Structure formats: C-alpha cells, structure tokens
Amino acid sequence: MKFLLSRLGVIFSALLIGACSSALPDLPMATVHPSLTKNISDYSYLIGPGDTLNVFVWGNSEVSGSYKVRPDGMITTSLVEDIHASGKTPTQLAREIESKLANYVRQPIVSVIVDGFVGPFSEQVRVIGEAAQPKAISYTKNMTLLDAMIQVGGLTEYANGNHASLIRVVNGKQVQYGLKIDDLLEDGNIKANVDLLPGDIIIIPESWF
User: Fold this and answer.
1) Total tally of structural domains belonging to the chain
2) Which residue numbers delimit the Polysaccharide export protein N-terminal domain (predicted)?
3) 51 lies in which domain range?
4) In angstroms, how far is CA 88 from the centroid of its own chain?
5) In the beta sheet, which residues pair with residue 2?
6) Beta-strand (E) ranges in 6-162?
7) 4-52 pLDDT, tens per residue?
8) Is the whole-model pTM more than 0.85?
C-alpha cells in the first residue's frame, strides 16, 4: 500500500508540474546580434570578454600591465578606469588608452597585445549538436566549414551531417542554410566545404537510423 501511494504521489506531482509548465508564457526569441565585422576581406580580430590584454606603455613600466576583459567588455588599467575594450581592435584600443593616459603621461606610446583569444560572441563560430566536441570557436580569417570540423573533432557516430544547418545573420535577420558535412568528411566532396563568417552557428542533428 505504501509503495502504491508513493507511486501515485510521484505521478500526481509529475502531472502537476506538467500542468504548471504548460501554463507558463513563452519567452521571446533571443535578440539578433549581427557580426561587428563590416568587411570580411579586411578582417581584423576584435577584442572580447575573457581576453587577456597585455598593455605596454613605452618608458613607463609602472603603468604597464596585464588585464582581463570583464564580462561587461571593460578593463581598468593602472591610471585609467573603465575603458571599453570589447569590439575594438588592439590598435584602436591602444590609441584610446594613449588619449586617456595623456592626462598623466607625456606623449604616451601604447601597445596592446592579446593573449588567449576569445572575442565577442557576435564574432565566434559556434558548433552545437552531434559534434565530437561542441564548442564556440574564435573566428579566424578565411575559416571554412572544414576548419571548424577539425577544431571540434569531427562528428559523433550518431550525427546526421548531411542534415546540418548553418544559421547566419543577414541584413539583421537570421537565415538558415543547409550543410552536407557527411559528404565533406566521409566522401571528400570539397564542393561541400563552404566559407564561414564571424557569428555563424552550425547545428548538427542526431540521425534517426
């Protein structure tokens, strides 16, 4: 009897949770964030949260240092607080730091070196689903689908690579394209290799067979 009551309690709880879940409102779709790269043929790496920046001020080692970009995209240096670093090239950031340091240092010359590339989310290539190692990849100039597959270790044995999709933001809207990853990796069909762009999302489904 106790076992029966226990089972009934579990079933009732599950039904109650299901009823409550169905009554919950749906969240709006994720906000679309297009890539910050305007001209892919003139691609430059953009700093992102999580990057470590080595800021070197010539002749002023006391104000030089290593700084990690915070989740809000800002860094704080020895003399300058809250400089927005995310979305800028190292050169752009160096010139901005020079401008701010000019209030304290005479004619500062600054170099910014990135260590541990992460980049903004809008510039990463994300591979999810039945990849051997699903992850976000820092975009590299001239990256292709094959390059991304090498970085994620290929597909799992359950993957349906020829029904994979690529999601890309085009003119402010998400557009879905079909991929033939099985043809590329298993058959060596180089025509299935395509160029990737910053911000692309690759979704690899599971095979039903």
Assistant:
1) 2
2) 42-114
3) 47-115
4) 16
5) none
6) 52-57, 65-68, 74-75, 83-84, 110-115, 124-129, 135-138
7) 434 445 455 555 555 555 688 999 988 888 999 989 999 999 999 999 9
8) no
